[in-house]
Design a protein that fits this description.
This protein is mostly helical. The chain has one domain. Helices cover 73% and strands 0% of the residues. It contains 13 helices and no strands. The longest helix has 27 residues. The protein is globular.
């Protein structure tokens, strides 16, 4: 039973590739339909975020370079963590409405519903990967590039799998528990401040408290991004943590989603 359910979760987007592709493209393009700038927002938004945070943290709070990251400017240190987080947070925040928004499609036609959380996660990551790539190009021009950067796509894929599992769980549960929409929004905000994105972990002097951050998956992802991109080093402990967590999230999320998807039509 378990392997049959997992096969549905893994294989369905592949077997229905044309439908999955059209579904993803439609959701991606719909974000910009009716806007004057259109796809330029993919570039305008991350650049605007970088400029805003640069102004706030550099000119208002006057935060300077971080010695532990080779005197890297604080805004660059922050954006290396913030942009991958933004993709994660956007996908998780939208997950609670994925099935509710597609209720008519789910209840009226024979539709492989398990492609919805996959497409929803993919759209968020495609939207925000542009900003991350722009930042990497800028950092490469500043001399930060190293062979370790070849690991970035692998880490980003693991983060995508981790996110997809959460999106599958939340989108499925929200069909039955609508209050999750408000709860998830609150949790994402709290999660942001519990992840060292706008502050370095070195600010926390208590080593025992620092070790507790290892239980935060997004902290481990961001540590890897920063060490690989800014220092050219691979933090093996954090890598050993995110690999099983990502796979467990993907498997458990997919299994739960496929296991209860037959009840969606009755509730929606």
């Amino acid at each position: 039973m378990f392997f049959a359910l997992m096969r549905q979760w893994v294989v369905t987007p592949i077997e229905n590739y044309r439908l999955f592709h059209n579904f993803t493209r439609q959701d991606f393009v719909s974000q910009f339909s009716g806007s004057i700038a259109g796809f330029l927002w993919l570039f305008i938004t991350p650049i605007a975020h970088i400029l805003i945070y640069s102004f706030v943290f550099v000119y208002i709070f006057q935060l300077r370079a971080l010695p532990e990251f080779g005197e890297t400017e604080f805004v660059l240190f922050m954006m290396v963590g913030y942009l991958p987080w933004f993709a994660f947070a956007d996908a998780v925040s939208k997950s609670t409405g994925l099935l509710l928004e597609k209720s008519g499609l789910i209840t009226k036609v024979m539709f492989p519903v398990q492609i919805i959380p996959v497409a929803g996660t993919l759209v968020s990551y495609l939207t925000h990967v542009i900003g991350f790539l722009l930042l990497l190009l800028y950092l490469a021009s500043k001399g930060y590039f190293s062979a370790m950067w070849l690991l970035i796509p692998f880490v980003y894929l693991l983060q995508f799998l981790f996110t997809m599992g959460l999106v599958a769980i939340l989108s499925a549960l929200c069909v039955f528990l609508r209050d999750l929409q408000h709860f998830v929004s609150l949790v994402v905000t709290i999660w942001f401040f519990l992840t060292p994105i706008i502050y370095p972990l070195s600010l926390i002097e208590n080593e025992e408290i620092q070790n507790l951050f290892l239980f935060n998956p997004m902290h481990n992802f961001i540590v890897i991004y920063r060490d690989v991109i800014l220092l050219g080093e691979l933090p093996y402990l954090n890598l050993y943590i995110i690999i099983p967590i990502s796979l467990i999230s993907y498997v458990v999320g997919g299994w739960l989603f496929v296991r209860i998807k037959h009840a969606f039509g009755d509730v929606l």
